[in-house]
Write a structure and sequence with these properties.
Layout lengths: L3 E2 L14 E7 L2 E10 L10 E9 L12 H17 L2
Antiparallel strand pairs: 1-2, 2-3, 3-4
């Protein structure tokens, strides 16, 4: 099951336009995250990647990306890649 949905109607934040915004459900908590996403390059065999830049719990204004454990960051990035690579 994919625990990600599009960010339609998400609160507008002053983040760069090149960041991808995804809402992710992890352990009964909705996260509103922004990632720097690089699509897969099938010609070279490079897999899609996402780097977490900003993370908010739900609609809360505080960006807590710098305070998350590495395992949480990896889980959020993984969910974002799964969702965004499906859109390629």
């Amino acid at each position: 099951m994919n625990n990600v949905h599009t960010a339609t109607g998400a609160q507008c934040r002053p983040y760069p336009h090149y960041l991808e915004h995804v809402d992710v459900l992890l352990d009964d908590t909705w996260w509103s995250i922004w990632v720097d996403y690089q699509a897969a390059d099938r010609a070279t065999g490079v897999n899609a990647t996402a780097w977490l830049v900003h993370a908010h719990v739900g609609e809360h204004f505080a960006d807590i990306a710098d305070y998350l454990s590495e395992s949480t960051v990896k889980r959020l990035e993984h969910e974002a890649v799964d969702y965004l690579s499906g859109a390629d």
